[in-house]
Amino acid sequence: MTQPEPDHEKSPFHDLAVKNSLKIDFRAFSHVEGLKAKEFRQSRIDILEHTAIVFSAKTAIDHFFRLCDEMRITIPDSMKYFCTSESVAFYLQKYIVYRKRKIFYGNNSLQDIEDVLIKNKEEKFLIPLSDTHKNDIPTLLDKLKIKYTKAVIYKTVCSDLSDLANIDYDLLVFYSPASIKSLFTNFPNFQQNDIKIATFGESTAKAVKEAGLRLDVHAPAPQFPSMTMALEHYIKEFNKNCKAK
Questions:
Q1: Does 81 reside within a domain?
Q2: Residue 151 is part of a domain; what is its CATH number?
Q3: CA-CA to 206 of 20 to 30 Å: which in 2, 68, 135, 168?
Q4: 223 and 147, same structural domain?
Q5: pLDDT tens digit string along 222-238?
Q6: Residue 48 belongs to what domain range?
Q7: Which are the contacts of 20, defined by CB distance < 8 A and separation ≥ 6?
Q8: Residue 173 pairs with which residues in a beta bridge?
Q9: What residues are paired with 80 via a beta bridge?
Q10: Does 9 have pLDDT greater than 70?
Q11: What's the half-sphere exposure (Cβ side, CA atoms, 13 Å) at 126?
């Protein structure tokens, strides 16, 4: 798994491994690094010119307030917050007095609160993002004719995998295009051969194919909404075919 190891045994991957007698190694192929104040200042974005902030991830919240602290910026109590989900909104409690702020959230999408966005369209929105962000939020705000500024405050970088002698696994599971990039950065002569590759998400599947690799397992799919379900189905089919031979 090209991601960090789950911190508890209730992980579905733990159950998958026990049920199918698998050995699963977890190793993050990429990680997030926040921009330093000096780097951010090069964008010439004035945070305090904005009256509303859009958050789509807890990571964005952490790096936004870290950056504000580095730059000695105090966010006014009047700032409005628009979050994609309840869990992201509640995470704001780590940095602000939640009950005294104007906070709105959707059910995993800002589209759920389009009416609220329209009522606040005169605000000037700031969207803290990763360098590899999706464009769904800017696209929505464009549609609603809402003014906004995209602010890249953290980036996804390749992890150092030099301690691995080689990639000698039966199957590799990728969750992001950045992990595919990291694979070839760390192992420029990588050959897939008999190694199976599984991906989660359309952008990751696309990155695998563009890299000239063979895609063997893909999720989510209607019948396999999770990676563990897709892998379990693949394992069953693989074992069935082996017995038939």
A1: yes
A2: 3.40.50.10090
A3: 168
A4: no
A5: 999 999 999 999 998 88
A6: 33-156
A7: 232, 235
A8: 198
A9: 52, 102
A10: no
A11: 20
* CB 70 within 8 Å of CB 37: yes
User: What predicted TM-score, i.e. pTM, was given to this entire model?
Assistant: 0.76
Residue 128 · residue 53 · CB < 8 Å: yes
Residue 245 has pLDDT above 90, yes or no: no
| 73 and 135 co-located in one domain | yes
Give the separation between CA 238 and CA 170, rounded to whole angstroms. 12
Question: Considering 98, 132, 156, which residue would you say is the last residue of a domain?
Answer: 156
The structure tokens listed for 122 are 């005169």
Among candidate residues 87, 26, 40, 37, the one with its CA nearest the CA of residue 61: 87
DSSP state of 224: B
Q: Give the pLDDT confidence of 21-60 residue by residue, as tens digits.
A: 889 989 899 999 999 999 999 999 999 999 999 999 999 9
Say if residue 236 is exposed, middle or buried (CB neighbours under 10 Å; 0-12, 13-18, 19+): exposed
pLDDT band, very low/low/confident/very high, at 244 (cuts 50, 70, 90):
low
pLDDT (mean) for 187-194: 92
Instruction: Find where tokens 């904005």 sit.
Output: 50
Q: What is the CA radius of gyration of the chain?
A: 21
Could you give the number of structural domains in the chain? 2
> What is the pairing mode between strands 125-130 and 196-200?
unpaired
| 99 and 42 within one domain | yes
Distance CA 37, CA 183 (A): 30
Does residue 6 lie within any of the structural domains? no
Q: Final residue of a domain: which of 140, 156, 172?
A: 156
